Amino acid sequence: MIQTILQSLLGGVLIGAATAGLLLVNGRIAGISGIFGEATALRPGLWRWAFLAGLVGAGAAASLAGLAAPQALQAEGFGLLAVSGLLVGVGTRFSGGCTSGHGVCGLANLSPRSLSATATFMAVAALVVFVTHHLLPAHAQLSLAARP
Amino acid sequence: MKVLTAAVFGALFGLGLIVSGMTDPARVLGFLDVAGAWNPALAFVMGGAVLTALPAFAIARRRRVSLMGEPIGLPDRRTVNARLLIGAAIFGVGWGLVGICPGPGLVLLGQNPLRAGVFVAAIAVGAWIARLREPAAAGAGLAATGARN
Asked: What angle do CA B93, A20, B146 make, to 5 degrees?
């Protein structure tokens, strides 16, 4: 447990350092849904594609180093992945941010707007997990990821 | 140069997501499962990230110019409206269903291109659908920030 917490903390510090770097060096907010949304809408700004390539590259490097994708992803159904991604895309576009944009950048920027968004998506996500894990046992067979 | 630094910060961000466990949907759902075997570890991810980024935002609010001479665009901090809360709730449903948010989804693209690819492509489609319902003023604002490159 202590090791997990230390890893979480170290990972968090790395995420925070990357966020601070992109802000102070490039003058940009490290909100992933925003960067991805603008890049895929083909807005000018090669830096967005470079940032996204860095993210994907980190995963590819981990894969080359022998770290396979988590079992929970490998066992996940395509239908649920598509539905989830669709909701994530619509929701983050409406609210103007995701876990990084509102959860990390917004909170670090002491933004009441981002605090409201973060509290909302955390509470709703926890509610969804409660429903799928404790009220709908059938769902657990649908998805291995639903069983932590 | 700013393309290079953006790539480096993207890779650092991705490394942080992997190290922290955020790319493991089972770990994320374990954190969100407050009524079950709650795993609080991911609270330390957000805590560590926010505390590390906190001084950078304090500097940015005063300087407003980046080290590379770019203007620092800080988002609106005040507006709390239905659009924000409904959007956050829809995102929460999507996140709670599978346990992947956009950053980890992109990192996982490098580890399992097929499954993460479906997820990431669906995000793009969802964002595209949401853009159709964007007020003209917001569209103009985004176009203005997009023009600064």
From this structure: 70
Tell me, what's the ipTM? 0.93
Average the pLDDT over B97-113 and give the result. Answer: 98
Alpha-carbon distance B23 to nearest alpha carbon in chain A (angstroms)? 8
Q: What is the pLDDT of residue A143?
A: 52
Please report, for chain A, the start and end positions of each structural domain, with discontinuous segments joined by +. 70-148
- DSSP character string of A71-124: HHHHT--HHHHHHHHHHHHHHHHHHT--IIIIIIIIHHTT-HHHHHHHHHHHHH
pLDDT tens by residue, A113-129: 999 999 999 999 999 99
Q: For chain B, how far is it from start to end, CA to CA, in angstroms?
A: 12
Within 8 A by CB and 6+ apart from B148, the residues are B70, B71, B73
> Cα separations (Å) of A147 from B40, B55, B99?
16, 38, 11
Q: What are phi and psi of B35, to 5 degrees?
A: -90, -10
Query: In chain B, which residues have their Cβ closer than 8 Å to the Cβ of A124?
Result: 88-89, 91-93, 96
User: What are the extents of the domains in chain B?
Assistant: 2-147
Q: Is the pLDDT of residue A95 over 70?
A: yes
Say if the Cβ atoms of A85 and B47 lie within 8 Å: no
- At B139, list the tokens: 């569209």
Mean pLDDT computed over A44-52:
97
pLDDT at B133: 82
Which among B72, B98, B107 has CB closest to A56? Answer: B107
Q: How far apart are CA B107 and CA B127, in angstroms?
A: 19
| Predicted confidence (pLDDT) at residue B21 exceeds the cutoff of 90 | yes
Residue B2 phi/psi, 5° resolution? -70, -20
State CA B68 to chain mean position distance.
23
